[in-house]
Every structure is written in C-alpha cells, then in structure tokens.
UniProtKB/TrEMBL annotation:
<feature type="transmembrane region" description="Helical">
    <location>
        <begin position="52"/>
        <end position="71"/>
    </location>
</feature>
<feature type="transmembrane region" description="Helical">
    <location>
        <begin position="78"/>
        <end position="96"/>
    </location>
</feature>
<feature type="transmembrane region" description="Helical">
    <location>
        <begin position="154"/>
        <end position="178"/>
    </location>
</feature>
<keyword id="KW-1133">Transmembrane helix</keyword>
<dbReference type="Pfam" id="PF13548">
    <property type="entry name" value="DUF4126"/>
</dbReference>
<dbReference type="InterPro" id="IPR025196">
    <property type="entry name" value="DUF4126"/>
</dbReference>
<protein>
    <submittedName>
        <fullName>DUF4126 family protein</fullName>
    </submittedName>
</protein>
<keyword id="KW-0472">Membrane</keyword>
<feature type="domain" description="DUF4126">
    <location>
        <begin position="7"/>
        <end position="179"/>
    </location>
</feature>
<keyword id="KW-0812">Transmembrane</keyword>
<feature type="transmembrane region" description="Helical">
    <location>
        <begin position="102"/>
        <end position="120"/>
    </location>
</feature>
Amino acid sequence: MKLALDILQGLGLASAVGLRPFLPALLAGALASGNLGVDFHGTQFAFLESPWWLLALAAALVASVLLRRVLESGPGEAALSGLGIGLGALLCAASIDDRHGTWWYGLILGALLALLASSVSRQLFARVRARFTSAGDAAAAAALPFYAEAAGVVIAGASVLFPPLAILAIGFLLALLVTGRRRAGQKYAGLRILR
C-alpha cells in the first residue's frame, strides 16, 4: 500500500511540473525539506530539497515570469516543456526512493506523465489563448500562465499531502486529452465538408 501511495505521489508531482515546472518543484522541495508528506533526505535525490536547488528553482521561476512572452512561443515553450519532463522524472523517482529501494521506473513514469501534462496543457492553453485574443481580451490571455502555475501548485501540494488525489489530476489530464482530440477531429471533419 505504501508503494502505491508513493507512486501516486510521484505521478501527481510529475503532472504538476508538466503544467509549469518551477513553482510546483519548488513547493515539493520546500515540503521535503520540512519533512511534510515527503522526504528526499537519504535518497539518491537528496539535492531536490537542498537550499541551493530551491534557490535555483526560485531564480528560474522569476526568470520564467519575466520572460513569459518568449516562453509562450515555439522554442521557448518546448524548452519549458523539456524542463518539466525532466523535473517530473526526478520528482517521481525521488518520491518512490523515499521509502523503497527500487526507484528507476519512477524516472520513466514521471517523464511520461509530465509529457502528457505538458502536451495537454499546451494544447488547451493555445486554444484558450486564441479564443481570448480573438475576443480582444489580451489581459485574460496574458493571465493564462499564472493559472497554470496555480493549478500546478494545487496539484503538487495535494499530491504530497494526500497522494490519492493524484488520481483526479491524472483523470482530468486524460479527459482533456480525449476532448482535445475529439475537437480537433470535429474541426477537420468540418473542413472536409466544405470541400
């Protein structure tokens, strides 16, 4: 049972950093340094709660806020996504390594779930941003990264403090993936009718 909870906790953290990488990872490291629901001390991933790592995450968070416009474009968005996938792999494996000797599969599971969260959120926010932009609501479009940060923090905190809640986050991501694909299929079906 403890293994299942640790895996769920790791998957929840991976999905949180897949949305936005820095603030959820900073929260997880801060909780781990206080031994609140997770503890990376004594694991292969002890650096995830070290002060220098938390300071680096805080600096990266500030830089991502200041460079928000650059990070919403193709290469910047891909770089942010890659960082989220890497952090998701590390946090998932670290969560498992907290109480279990075999943790390597957490790297794979975490990377896959962070990839899912990243791709689903990028598609969702691109659609919503386009809708806000076409409606002339630039302020709402500019606030979208902050909503992603807030969602990531809520998912990370909930997954650490009550790991079964990660199931809800994963289910929500899968539902967004299915509805996003269905909408894309309907869009292209409509284009075929016009021919």
